Amino acid sequence: MKPLLRSFFMFVRQILKDSMLAAVCSAAVLAAFFIRFGVPAIERVLCGYFEKEVILADYYLLFDLLLALVTPYMFCFASAMMMLTEYDENIASYLAVTPVGKKGYMLSRLALPASIAFAASVILLWEFSLTTWPIGMIPLVCLLTCLSSVAVSLFLFAFSHNRVEGMAMGKLSGLLMLGLPVPFFLSSDVQYLFSPLPSFWITKLCMARNAIFLLPALLSSLIWIWLLYRKFSRKIA
User: Fold this and answer.
1) Do 199 and 146 meet the contact criterion of CB atoms below 8 Å apart?
2) Alpha helices (H) in the chain, listed in sequence order
3) CB–CB of 2/9 below 8 Å?
4) Contact at 8 Å (CB) between 228 and 151?
5) SS3 214
6) What is the pLDDT of residues 99-133, one digit of tens each?
């Protein structure tokens, strides 16, 4: 346990020393303030200008889901960038053969940051959400978004050779968020073309409030993690 914690705290110090990654982690708080206070203000302005009662209010849930996903995404993106830096400097391979081990390295770089992201996501969504959530729904949704964000982190590390490539791939990985708005704007069966995306099922779960969508939401994230972890594991060997 001690080597694992030392490895994790070393990881945290490295992120705090990197101004860009520190800003990435704090961006979730800025997003929360914008969604909670900026979106309703924009709604009032638009309603007054177009003389309509509702313009954005029907999509408040979408903004809440975006906040629930952005928070762990930012944390896991920072984690992936730091892992790529360590990989480029051969630190990852070194740590894998120390008492930390490959499993400990994965836990300190993925599981622990994702756990912190989960807690931060729950707090931010609880305090800054635009809609009323049922008891227990916020932790469940935040758990699902954290799992999908871990998949993003694995994707960035597995398919990038260095940090520069990782930042470019980060734009591509943002497509995994594309599933969030689909159920809001597509009512036909065409929407199921996005079913491989965990974010699609998370939205379906929140819109329908039906536990039947929990299983595909969970399985889609776990399948992505399983597929990408195999390449991640080979890369740090």
Assistant:
1) no
2) 2-17, 19-33, 39-50, 60-88, 91-96, 101-106, 112-128, 137-158, 163-173, 182-185, 198-208, 214-235
3) no
4) yes
5) helix
6) 777 777 778 888 888 999 999 999 999 999 999 88
